[in-house]
Amino acid sequence: MNVIRRNIPNSLTCLNLLCGVLAIISGVHADSPVAGGLTGTQLAWIFIAGAAVADFCDGFAARLLGAYSSLGKELDSLCDNVSFGVAPAVSLYFALRGISPSSAVAWAALIIPICGALRLAKFNIDESQTTHFRGLPIPANAIFWIGYMALMQQSELLATPGIFLPVVIIESWLMVSPLNMFSLKMKNIGWKEHWKQWLLIIAAIVFICSMGVSGLMWLILFYVCLSLIPERGE
């Protein structure tokens, strides 16, 4: 029974990986209809969202069951880079090639998983990132790119080198930057101690309800800006 309990978090982490691989396969098909009227890109977004849910659940299960392990920590990082680094990069690459097949700008998407791997490696050796993150968390990176791709479907201007290149460079840099980003973990539901978390939840509702999937991009930008506001006593 103890063996089963210890491996529940790792099983959820592997589910994260499975969703990430399915997102990569789906993203290759870009604008082609693949299932239920969804394009490959849209299906990739769903699988990345599924990976994010599994990623949240594996951490929650580890805390609930007291099933922490060095194996689980390393496995989590490896899976996260597939689901939130490689998967959005592949989907973005093929989405950009679908808009402009002759453009080389799509190759810049490969910066994303490289910086994602560096961000995760730094996280694994930094014991101080318990109540906050140093650099943009890689799941937030994936959420940003889902919103960006949704907005790109509305305006192909976002696929031009003059806009896409600066965005991908800045977004990738944020993952490896020294900037402190607040964690979504809350010890209680009090506003005074967790006002940033509550503002982010409210913003998520507003952005998604008013803009749909593209609102996710603005949500992550809001998260970054909110993180830059110093806490009292800092």
Description:
By secondary structure, the protein is mainly α. The protein contains eight helices and four strands. The strands form two sheets. A two-stranded antiparallel sheet has the order 1-2. A hairpin with a 2-residue loop joins strand 1 and strand 2. Helix 3 packs antiparallel against helix 4 and helix 5 packs across helix 8. The chain starts with a helix and ends in a 7-residue tail after the last helix. The mean pLDDT is 88.
What portion of residues is helical? 55-70%
Mean pLDDT: 88
> Unreliable segments (pLDDT under 50, ≥5 consecutive)?
none
CA-to-CA gap between the ends? 46 Å
> Gyration radius, to the nearest Å?
18 Å
Find the count of extended strands (DSSP E, 2+ residues): 4
Number of separate helices: 8
Order of strands, main sheet, comes to 1-2
Q: What is the element layout, followed by pairings?
A:
Layout: H1 2-28, E1 33-35, E2 38-39, H2 40-65, H3 70-99, H4 111-125, E3 132-134, H5 138-154, H6 161-176, E4 180-182, H7 195-211, H8 215-227
Antiparallel strand pairs: 1-2, 3-4
Helix pairs in contact: 1-2, 1-3, 2-3, 2-5, 3-4, 3-5, 4-6, 5-8, 7-8
Quick tags:
single chain; 234 residues; mainly alpha; two-stranded antiparallel ribbon; 8 helices; 69% helix; 5% strand
